[in-house]
């Protein structure tokens, strides 16, 4: 199941449970400036997919109440699926390897919480300095998709709005944003960080039926950087 299907399903279930409630959240802030890497980690070691997977966050490093799900099948990209307007915006929230092809290794972990909350972690590693290019490509994708729409399996329209999110810098460079996924007047909220760590780009998406605490995303991002740097050495 794609991340789009999970988000759309959560919105649909919330509609069924809560009636025709209208979202009244204020408009999202604009995206901040494009983030340039603090350094160019072209010579960083590239982990294989098993090492990369073992160094993603586990449930003990997430907010309380999250449990691990089965890993997505190899090649699963997530994102908004094929019925998206504009089409390229289907890759917003997709796996980093889908946003920036050419990864030497990729891995993902998924976690479920209460009331439709979820945490999705995915990472892709690149040889020959490709990680910095992938980090830039992920930012450019988001900037071209501040508003887009899609349809779920039942042909229900789902609207997406992307805006800025203030987070501390992490790793060799990090960019953050938030996504509102709305259907029938109800909204699911997602806070996202994309971080460059050596030869790896990692994306953390924290979704909930209410606005997530941005400090929790900050803590997860910092923990993920420490874990990846521990795998890569000093």
What report would you give on this structure?
With 234 residues, the chain is an alpha+beta fold. It has one domain (3-19, 44-232): PknH-like extracellular domain (Protein Transport Mog1p, Chain A). It is built from five helices and nine strands. The protein has a nine-stranded antiparallel sheet with strand order 1-3-4-9-8-7-6-5-2. The longest helix has 19 residues, at 214-232. The N and C termini lie far apart (37 Å). This is Sensor domain-containing protein. It comes from Nocardia yunnanensis.
Question: Features of this protein?
Answer:
Protein Transport Mog1p, Chain A, single chain, 5 helices, alpha+beta, disordered N terminus, Sensor domain-containing protein, 9 strands, 234 residues
Helix/strand layout:
Blueprint: H1 3-18, H2 49-54, E1 67-68, E2 84-85, H3 96-99, E3 105-112, E4 118-125, H4 130-143, E5 147-151, E6 157-164, E7 173-183, E8 186-197, E9 200-208, H5 214-232
Antiparallel strand pairs: 1-3, 2-5, 3-4, 4-9, 5-6, 6-7, 7-8, 8-9
Organism: Nocardia yunnanensis
Protein name: Sensor domain-containing protein
Region (Disordered): 62-86
Radius of gyration: 17 Å
Main sheet specs? 9 strands, antiparallel
The succession of helices and strands, N to C, reads HHEEHEEHEEEEEH
Helix proportion: 25-40%
Count of spatially separate domains: 1
Could you say which overall geometry the principal axes of the C-alpha atoms support? Answer: globular
Average pLDDT score: 86
Percent range for β-strand residues: 25-35%
Strand order of the largest sheet: 1-3-4-9-8-7-6-5-2
- The number of helical segments is 5
- The top level CATH class name: Alpha Beta
Protein name: Sensor domain-containing protein
Region (Disordered): 62-86
Organism: Nocardia yunnanensis
């Amino acid at each position: 199941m794609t991340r789009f299907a999970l988000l759309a399903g959560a919105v649909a279930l919330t509609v069924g449970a809560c009636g025709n409630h209208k979202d009244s959240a204020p408009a999202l802030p604009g995206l901040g400036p494009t983030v340039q890497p603090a350094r160019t980690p072209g010579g960083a070691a590239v982990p294989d997919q098993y090492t990369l997977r073992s160094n993603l966050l586990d449930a003990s490093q997430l907010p309380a109440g999250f449990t691990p799900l089965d890993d997505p099948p190899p090649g699963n990209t997530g994102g908004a699926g094929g019925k998206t307007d504009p089409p390229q915006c289907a890759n917003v929230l997709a796996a980093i390897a889908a946003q920036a092809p050419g990864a030497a290794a990729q891995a993902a972990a998924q976690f479920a919480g209460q009331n439709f909350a979820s945490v999705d972690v995915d990472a892709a590693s690149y040889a020959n300095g490709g990680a910095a290019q992938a980090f830039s490509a992920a930012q450019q994708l988001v900037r071209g998709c501040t508003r887009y729409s899609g349809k779920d399996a039942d042909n229900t329209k789902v609207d997406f709005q992307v805006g800025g999110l203030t987070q501390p810098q992490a790793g060799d460079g990090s960019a953050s944003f938030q996504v509102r996924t709305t259907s029938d007047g109800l909204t699911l909220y997602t806070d996202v960080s994309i971080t460059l760590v050596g030869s790896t780009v990692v994306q953390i998406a924290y979704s909930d039926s209410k606005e997530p605490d941005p400090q929790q995303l900050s803590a997860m991002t910092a923990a993920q950087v420490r874990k990846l740097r521990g795998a890569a050495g000093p």
